[in-house]
Amino acid sequence: MTDPLETIRWGHAALELEIALDEPGPPRLVRIGAPGEKTAAPRPAAPLPLVEVTTAGLGRYWSGRHLVNTVLGSRLRHRSHHAIRDGDWHVLTVDLHEPETGLTAQAVYRSPDGLPVLRSEVLLRNEGDRTLHLESVGSLVAGCLTGGDPAALDGAELLWAENEWFAECRWQRRPLRVSSPERGGRFHTTAGRSTRVVAGQGVWSSCGRLPMGGLTERESGRTWLWQIEHNGGGWRWECGVRDDTAYAALYGPNAADHGWRHPLEPGTEFRTVPVALALAAEGGPDGAFAALTSYRRATRRPHPDHRRLPVIFNDYMNCLMGDPTTAKLLPLVEAAAEAGAEYFVIDAGWYDDGDNWWSSVGAWEPSASRFPGPNGIHEVLDRIRERGMVPGLWLEPEAVGTNSPVAASLPEEAFFRRDDRRVEEGGGRYHLDLRHPAARAHLDGVVDRLVGEWGIGYLKLDHNTDPGSGTSSHPAEAPAAGLLGHNRAQLDWLDGILDRYPDLVLENCASGGMRMDYALLSRLQLQSTSDQQDLLRYAPIAAAAPTAVTPEQGAVWAYPLPEDSLDEVAFTMASALLGRIHLSGRLTELSPEARDLVHEAVAVHKSIRADLREAVPAWPLGLPNWEDPWITLALRTPDTTYVTAWRRTGEETVRDLDLPHLAGADVHVEVLYPASSRAGTVWRPDAAELALTLPAAPSAVLLRLTRTSPERS
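User: That's the sequence. What structure does it adopt?
Assistant: Structure tokens below.
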């Protein structure tokens, strides 16, 4: 018998959780927080079961928009638990069992030592004798985000990020009470029927919203952030109120949002997508994003690129725009090398002999008309190497154009299909199903030829069409279940590429930031943050990108044009200095003064990039709004803080930047870029504010703040 008062206490110096083992009911997560943190206990009915599951035959006790309060979740009982240390990770596994159906659930919690971040996933197993038709499974259910004081809910605000093509990473705040209002008065109700739900859809993981969210308390600054680590649109989170306490539940695909169903046959298993929950006990969203940044570094695949951070030139944006030829590329190779680029990437169109590269993708053979002469495209690739750079190419691996010979050479089952018909999307595109061995063999052959034979060192992996709900490999398979299978096969394929070519650099792109998630970014080295072509519009995207991707993985376009003023050239270059420079634009047509600004920016970036791979982000003016005239981004290490400030429009020439981590310290402020900047600065240590003057708009500046004395006690 389990002691009805027994509690599992687990964690480390930065995070601890408590799970109550109540004999009459399911185990419940009753506390998660920092050790020694004083928070009010949640009300008795507030903590939800560790695992929430619905099937076709067993749904919820209380109907509504939520997926919690499930019958199966309430019937799961504790069977065993154990904790281990796996290198730098603490791991807790809790085994649950529901005897009537034979369903077992294994909740696996992992946390990196010293970081207030919890990673969670659930493994279901059918030990019964009948198939269970799954419709939703929570990867993490936390019913204790606030204590039992209803006043804490009144000051809580939800966080989420709208994410659109050309307009990525637009963070929003809204009071929790808007979606979970206080309904009581004379009569108290413990649970409503509505909750705040944010869900993905289709093949892209971040089209519409980032697979992230959060909850912050205005007064204390205590903040939760979560991310769903899934590379498709089959994800959902909900955050609401149960018995005067805030909860969050994080899911992969489900029936309500995606039409997902999974038959869990006797003796089989199903694993949820992993999710992560980060906590800042104080410091607001900046503190939680800092913790999440460190967690992302701890979970990704090691790669030399994360240490070197080379500068990349790509010929696409505001440059060749998908029309590369030998004649156009060779002058750009010279200009890129002179600017200090270390990789040179030939983007879309290099394979197309006609006038429509969109519908001809798939075979990935070089165009003879674009690259005439006996050596074809290798004339350009060899010149890139001669100038000391690594050559790269653009691929859209999952796409096959309707005009490509590959469309006819692969079997029907190698493509996305629904109702026994091949899915066509985007005006002439089919989509490969990477579960099929022929699809994977085709792509492996392409990569082995380009990398193994040609010596390509960089592949930009793009994805520009969304073929909808998914694919059915057989009539009984729900398209969303087929999509999940494809998503997991894609990750396995990427792992295989990097196993064979460990120094190959892979960039993640999907019309810019439409597939920005940490299933992919735990494997791929860079993330294209946007396709935005307007340098003024790019500033809020560049500033907010570290919310979604570590700074050293965030590729930001810097695309100076000959018609730009010198202030505008410095503006576009400054946008990339605290991320990864994706240099482009018409470098060969720039004036000498503009070209000098480009070269200066690249040199400054190289001088500070060793700090970027360790730094965590903050936003001295808060997370940027889309129309803000002033925008800032800070990256800080223990000794140094870098700040990029953009002034886009308006009459306001001076802003006070909030830098609380430097409170009371003497600080040396330097203008790093551009050297010709007319920026003025005044440091106020007692207020922890930097008064910054930028006389012109548009203009931008990169500053370095170095602590010259410790903060005063």
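Residues 76 and 593 are 69 Å apart (CA to CA).
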